[in-house]
Specification:
single chain; mainly alpha; 2 strands
Length: 357
């Protein structure tokens, strides 16, 4: 007979090895649909690698794709550590983008050294507001934040489409539903000339460093981890759980809002309804693959971005569907969940009891 029992302690090797092995296994499993599609597996993976590391442009595109994933991954990781299930990073991203457009398209006639920080602050504040509402509903009425944050994504997207067809529609946009462009002085400066990667990447990495420090070295981080481990025990110890959850919601929503700021003020320059291909949802996979570690989120985001950019390159070179990237990301999450289970529990083989009377 066998039984499943919790491990007394999880070794660092097992804790940090699970995400790495999960990524490797996901890439290995992706060879199956590649083979079924008739592609040469070695050539396909070579094209994926070349599509990310084959040139400065390819590498910069990977960094560009990773930037919003770092923000949304951090948003999910911080919230999930407190068992506040933020599934609304996609909507909070769009709120941040809308705030950036509202401030940065000429509403305020101020110099760039004032306008750009103002865009960043307003975008973060809009994202924070998008998470504060579901958190209030949870703490005040016991509403499930998984449902409220998820449904709020659709509400925000519909509101955005209405705004793009009305109040913030660009009169010079030839009828397309898009906002006016952000002023040049309100744009995030590029990191490399003639490349799309922008200084939002630096902001994302700084945010990850600060989040890691706060989570591990601050009193706020200790209280967050305590609430995440056992909210009842934390409340009994004198920690204001509801207040802590609100602070976590503000930080999580602000990080997701910064993802929207980066996409509209660092990359595209104006807002459309298809600004995000699902960065908010992919950020959940990034956070899970990172083991909810802010430092690990950066590495995880780079891996996920490499998969997407590499799969696009492979698709163009070999005629293989780029949806393979979604498959790899999904399998990575599945492998992390399975690996996380075996990191927390172990299977013990026991002898059957002697025959009954």
């Amino acid at each position: 007979m066998i039984r499943i029992e919790p491990r007394q302690a999880t070794s660092h090797c097992l804790k940090y090895g699970v995400p790495v092995v999960s990524a490797i296994v996901a890439l290995a499993l992706a060879a199956i649909p590649l083979a079924l599609a008739g592609a040469n597996i070695a050539t396909a993976y070579r094209e994926m690698f070349s599509g990310v590391f084959g040139s400065v442009f390819a590498f910069s595109e990977m960094l560009t794709r990773a930037t919003p994933l770092i923000f949304t991954g951090l948003a999910a990781a911080i919230a999930f550590r407190a068992r506040l299930w933020n599934i609304g990073a996609e909507g909070q991203l769009y709120l941040g983008a809308m705030a950036a457009v509202a401030v940065g398209t000429g509403f305020l006639d101020v110099p760039g050294f004032i306008l750009l920080p103002l865009i960043i602050i307003c975008g973060a504040a809009a994202g924070a507001a998008g998470m504060a509402v579901p958190t209030f509903l949870r703490t005040r009425f016991g509403a499930d934040e998984v449902v409220t944050t998820l449904l709020l994504n659709f509400i925000i997207l519909i509101f955005l489409q209405m705004m793009l067809e009305g109040p913030i529609k660009d009169p010079m946009g030839l009828g397309w539903p898009q906002s006016p462009p952000i002023l040049d002085q309100g744009m995030l400066p590029p990191l490399i000339d003639r490349m799309r990667v922008h200084s939002g990447l630096v902001l994302a990495i700084v945010a990850a460093i600060i989040a890691q420090f706060l989570l591990v070295r601050s009193v706020w981080g200790f209280r967050l981890r305590a609430v995440g481990e056992n909210a009842s025990a934390a409340r009994h110890a004198g920690i204001g759980v509801n207040r802590l959850l609100f602070s976590v919601a503000i930080v999580s929503g602000a990080l997701a809002g910064l993802a929207g700021v980066g996409e509209v003020a660092g990359l595209k320059g104006y807002l459309t309804a298809d600004l995000s291909p699902g960065f908010g949802y992919t950020g959940i996979v990034v956070a899970m693959l990172a083991g909810l570690s802010p430092a690990g989120v950066v590495v995880s985001a780079l891996f996920i971005a490499s998969v997407f950019v590499g799969a696009d390159s492979m698709s163009r070179a070999m005629g293989v569907s780029s949806y393979l990237a979604d498959l790899v990301v999904s399998m990575s999450l599945l492998c992390v969940l399975v690996g996380g289970f075996f990191a927390r529990f172990r299977i013990v083989r026991t002898r059957a009891a002697a025959g009954g009377a």
